[in-house]
Write a structure and sequence with these properties.
Layout lengths: L8 H7 L4 H9 L5 E4 L5 E4 L5 E4 L5 E3 L13
Antiparallel strand pairs: 1-2, 2-3, 3-4
Amino acid sequence: MSNSRALTKRQINCLEKLTQRQIQRLERLPRDYEVVSIDDGPLIVRGPKGKLLRVKANGRLVALVARFRPYLHVNG
């Protein structure tokens, strides 16, 4: 996390909630990965091709899939 922006107090508090494996994963992320969110939810990073990934509690990266409900419902 060698970003030039300083972390806010809220972000620091969120970091305290991370597992040791999540912290280790952050330390090993390549430079072309960017931490997107650590506030109020899962730890999210953006990969080099723009793909969003969640860092699971065990440190594994998994693709973040948006869940949505279709607006058209067909009864039949």
